[in-house]
Amino acid sequence: MGNLIRAHMARLWKTPIFWLAMLAMVPYGLGLSGSAIGDYQSGVLPAGLWGQPLFGFGLLAGIILGAVFGLFFGAEYADGTIRNKLTAGHGRVSIYLAALLSALLAAFVLYGAYLLAWLPRLPWMGKNLPAPPKGRLLVCLAGTVLLMVRYCSLCTVLSMLITRRAVLAVVLILLMVLLFTASMQAQDAYESADMGGMELMIDENGGQQFVFHEARDPGKLLMFLYDYLPACQAYRYMELDAAPMMLVYSAAATALTIGLGLILFKRKDIR
Fold first, then answer.
1. DSSP type of residue 208
2. How far apart are CA 30 and CA 119, in angstroms?
3. Residue 218 CB-half CA count within 13 A
4. Which of 100, 113, 122, 139 is the most buried (most CB within 10 A)?
């Protein structure tokens, strides 16, 4: 399996989309750290002063990883690489797990580039920004790592099952966008129910009126989606608002995806 991973990583370093993603991490990391610094300097002290720069990668990780792996792993079938690996004597489990571990390594490299982008600001931030609670910080870090593993497991299962490169790229990107959109909708619905809020109403004559909605019970389904959906989790990690159940959901979703992926890949007809 080690040789398979090394071959993946060697090819990844030559892939333009990976370097474009690495380059995109610079403005992304600088932007979120700048947002935290701007909040502090304007007198606003949200919980996410440290959460934004430390864990903001998770918010767009699905879309970024979907784009990278859709084009990278899509070549496995197009170039006949998987068939050649089987002919060389590699087992299907080894091929699948090597792809998953390679995806994880690539994800951590991108996360590292994101963190390094704002590293020069760290001394100033450490001196001026209030220190975050260590317990919350560790839970959110663990949650962000699990979220990356969850995204990589989802990318891997689709990469090992879809043979056409163009189809894989489109499916992965669309899926990640849909997950992100669904997460944002669930988050808005949950916060509107949990905290209430104002809504602008316009009558048939064009008159405008603000209507206040009182807080209500979000319901079990909405609470589950708020804890389960990946972008909801990522946003809450940025706010240092992590519940242990979120980590359990990510771990369970990852285990289910890997297990199902291995079963389907073992049965897949590869010619």
1. E
2. 9
3. 19
4. 100
CB atoms under 10 Å from CB of 46, counted, come to: 14
Higher pLDDT, 141 or 45: 141
Cβ-based burial of 184 (10 A; exposed 0-12, middle 13-18, buried ≥19): middle
Q: Is residue 205 scored above 70 in pLDDT?
A: no
Q: What's the confidence (pLDDT) of residue 53?
A: 92
pLDDT at 81 over 90: no
Distance (Å) of CA 215 to CA 129, 152, 182, 188: 32, 37, 22, 13
Task: Assess contact for 64 and 24: CB atoms under 8 A.
Answer: yes
User: What average pLDDT does range 117-139 have in this prediction?
Assistant: 89
Where do we find the tokens 């990946």? 230
Angstrom distance (rounded) from CA 256 to CA 2? 24
**Could you give the count of Cα atoms lying within 13 Å of 147 in the half-sphere of its Cβ?**
34
Among 264, 246, 236, 224, which residue's Cα sits nearest to residue 150? 246
CB 44 within 8 A of CB 16: no
To which H or E segment does residue 209 belong? strand 208-213
> For 117, phi and psi rounded to 5 degrees?
-60, -35
